[in-house]
């Protein structure tokens, strides 16, 4: 069972991600601001971290740079349609990209988890 930390400032998106992760049989933890990210990583020891790129205190790229020493794979999450975003995400060391709105199938693919019922 994968342990997934979600760092997302929008409470609706954060709640949706936690529900979707539960449906994928993952153990999900969530924080709403970058300031709690390192503490959550230390406390929960996630297998993977989903990072919103558009966070208020610092963007997801800066947060990924701060967390990269943990050696935990990270997936970027964004509503941006910027054409150069995929390249920026790869260069920042993210293992994947979820573009909002995304479906359960998209999340399962990025996490390499089976869909419910499969």
TrEMBL record:
<feature type="domain" description="Response regulatory">
    <location>
        <begin position="3"/>
        <end position="115"/>
    </location>
</feature>
<dbReference type="InterPro" id="IPR011006">
    <property type="entry name" value="CheY-like_superfamily"/>
</dbReference>
<dbReference type="GO" id="GO:0000160">
    <property type="term" value="P:phosphorelay signal transduction system"/>
</dbReference>
<dbReference type="Pfam" id="PF00072">
    <property type="entry name" value="Response_reg"/>
</dbReference>
<feature type="modified residue" description="4-aspartylphosphate">
    <location>
        <position position="52"/>
    </location>
</feature>
<dbReference type="InterPro" id="IPR050595">
    <property type="entry name" value="Bact_response_regulator"/>
</dbReference>
<keyword id="KW-0902">Two-component regulatory system</keyword>
<protein>
    <submittedName>
        <fullName>Response regulator</fullName>
    </submittedName>
</protein>
<keyword id="KW-0597">Phosphoprotein</keyword>
<dbReference type="InterPro" id="IPR001789">
    <property type="entry name" value="Sig_transdc_resp-reg_receiver"/>
</dbReference>
């Amino acid at each position: 069972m994968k342990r997934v930390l979600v760092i997302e400032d929008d409470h609706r998106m954060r709640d949706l991600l936690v529900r979707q992760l539960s449906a994928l049989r993952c153990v999900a933890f969530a924080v709403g601001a970058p300031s709690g990210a390192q503490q959550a990583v230390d406390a929960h020891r996630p297998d993977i971290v989903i990072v919103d790129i558009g966070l208020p205190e610092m963007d997801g790229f800066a947060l990924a740079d701060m967390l990269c020493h943990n050696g935990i794979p990270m997936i970027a999450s964004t509503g941006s349609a910027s054409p150069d975003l995929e390249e920026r995400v790869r260069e920042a060391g993210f293992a994947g990209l979820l573009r909002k709105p995304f479906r359960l199938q998209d999340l399962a693919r990025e996490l390499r988890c089976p869909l419910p019922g499969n």
